[in-house]
Amino acid sequence: MILGPRFLIEAGFIVAVAVVAGIESVGTWAIIGLVAGAWLIVALVELAVWLSHARKPRGLTPQGSDPSLSRRHNPGMASTLSDSQLVARCRAGDQQAWAELVERFSRYVYAIAVQAFRLSDADAEDVFQEVFARAYQHLDKLRDDAAVRPWLAQLTRRLCIDRLRAASRERPVAEEELAATGGEETLALLDEALTVREALAAAPEHCREVLDRFFARDESYKTIGDALDLPSGTIASRISRFLARLREHMEGRKMDAGPSGDR
Amino acid sequence: MTAYDEERLAKLIRALPPAPTGWVRAAQELPFARGEIDEIVGRAEADAAFRKRLIADLEGALAAEGYERDPVVLAALRARLTAP
User: What is the DSSP letter of B52?
Assistant: First the structure.
């Protein structure tokens, strides 16, 4: 337990009671009684504080602000935590870590449902929510925290297949149509795309933002320029430069923070 | 041409567009819906008829009991009720 300001106030209170008791020239037993009474009050305060913490809901309880997760509200951003660190924090009941985990894998799960299995929006939404609901419920059962990515991918694929099978019972679907979905090639592409995305997460924010807005969000130069307060005429050259840096990084070279004047 | 030329990188970045914001927020709020989910599961465990209705028609059974349609709660309940 950390001895914080509350401890100092309480200790000061006991000392003050003892001093006052001494000034009043009361007997030894009266002083002992007063100090013991003061200590009892302090103990009751501590007990009340402890009980208020103990009553907080179990499971994913807030853990206060954590600088390493402070970027969770940044769209399309991932913190610097590894997958296994993130899972460990989720398991310890960190709500911010859970939000980060959802953010980190949301595109991947969504893309598997929509691109690989070609689910409708309504079905994809159901699958998306169910994947994270199951992940939330069964996170304790994950044997290797670092394996959260293939675990989520497998879960998503299984739920997509269940959804297609259920739909085919209502509306007969040709076997070829079912076979065409969930293509290994698309799944492999999405897996690789997530790897690139992880590399992008390590890039400077302005670099990541420009590439994400242009390619993943399909925004125009003007929209990007307006949003990032940059001349739209410079967007194309920045995209080219940032792609080149990302390429260097993917090829094993370290992506540096970028030359001054980029932003 | 390398494995990661600019064209391929562009294709890979493009392959992961953002999921709809509402979906992501809903999944992130899962911890906050836990109380309601636990309550419904608790009722289902105590009341076999209610559990049967939930499994047969989750949305209908919840609506009949006055619960609002919340995709987070529905997904979590599906996961819980169908868990082995």
Answer: H
Task: Say whether both A81 and A46 belong to one domain.
Answer: no
Res A56: pLDDT: 35
**CATH code for position A153:** 1.10.1740.10
Domains contained in chain A, number: 3
Closest residue in A to B12 (Cα–Cα): A193
Quick one: pLDDT band at residue A174, thresholds 50, 70, 90?
low
Structural domain boundaries, residue A12: 5-54
Of the candidates B14, B31, B75, the beta carbon closest to that of A129 is on: B75
- Is there a contact between A132 and B30 if contact means CB atoms under 8 Å apart? yes
Between CA A194 and CA A149 the distance in angstroms is: 10
- Asked if the Cβ–Cβ distance from B80 to A137 is below 8 Å, we say yes
Interatomic CA distance for residues A74 and A95, integer angstroms: 16
- Distance (Å) from the C-alpha of residue A246 to the closest C-alpha of chain B? 8
* Buried/exposed A50-89: b ≥16 CB within 10 Å, e otherwise: eeeeeeeeeebeeeeebeebeebeeebbbbebebeebbeb
Q: pLDDT > 70: what percent of chain B? A: 95
Between CA B46 and CA B43 the distance in angstroms is 5
Do the Cβ atoms of B6 and A243 come within 8 Å? Answer: yes
What the block records as the tokens of A120 is 């409708």
Which residue, among A145, A147, A111, A151, has the nearest Cα to A127 in the 3D structure? Answer: A111
Q: What pLDDT is attached to residue A15?
A: 72
> Inter-chain contact A134–B79, Cβ cutoff 8 Å?
yes
In this structure, which amino acid lies at residue A29?
W
